[in-house]
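Hi R.,

Here's the chain you asked about this morning:
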Amino acid sequence: MKLRLLGKVYKKQGKAVFVKVKKKDFMKVMEKIHRKTQGRISAITGYDNGKNIELIYTFLLERYILNVKIEINRKNPFIQSISSLFPAAEIYERENFEMLGVRFEGNKNLKKILLDKASPKTPLRKGGKI
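And here is the predicted structure, written out as tokens:
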């Protein structure tokens, strides 16, 4: 697979490749990864940079590690779930929902998995709750 067809390659480090995609292209890119590779998802890492929420989807492919970065609106953090393409993504989506308040449209199982009821809501958000 030619990585530049997925999005802008902004970093290469050893076997790791980082590609940034626009939200409007996100599902097309995920479907292409699903169709053209035998890769599996190993993480969805979320980060609140103060302006946006960055999500990095990490896939283990045959020859390299593909990291797909997308930025979503911090005030209304939602994105399409990829759990229908990559079932293992459900647990990572639930974690980012709980920790950052990101809503994954299509994931019917968005509920807490790590924190108890006394824990702060969205503890990884800058400035507290959403």
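One quick note: The beta strands are 8-13, 16-20, 40-48, 52-60, 65-73, 78-80, 103-105.

Cheers,
M.
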